[in-house]
What we know:
The protein is of the alpha+beta class.
Amino acid sequence: MDTMDLTVAIDPGSGGHDDLIMTIPLLGLEICADTYYFAIALEDAGSEFDQSDVKKGVASLLRRWSEASKACICGETVHLPFDFSDKHVGCIQLIRRDSVFFISYGYCDLPGYSVNPLKLGSFCREVSDFKMTTKTAIDVPCQSFLLAMDFAIASIEQEFATKH
């Protein structure tokens, strides 16, 4: 597989629930998550909350994903959190083999409120109880995944740049 689509969109006006949508067609994946924990993290950081700040927070999360993906070496596994909910954290799992990522989606049992979506710390490298929920993993060239990440980040950044 040479190309990969990964989209992340925010549906404003939902009060922070089911308003963050990620799709990865190759995985047959569409996840609806909440921006609620982004709002909490922004308030904790002293930011005056508005929808533009949430979009900036999501773009920041995607940039942390990109950094973790680029730093992933052959044989290593990283987890990229997306769905911060009360009982778990939904995340993409990347396993690096040479110039390919094996990608799946699932969750770990860590409660979402224990992970700050704006400051992931060591989360990406320390998940030990990942449970895959996709039927399979896909193999994607690392460069294709990284380009898809760059596009997703640019898309979110364009949204908040054109609205304000």
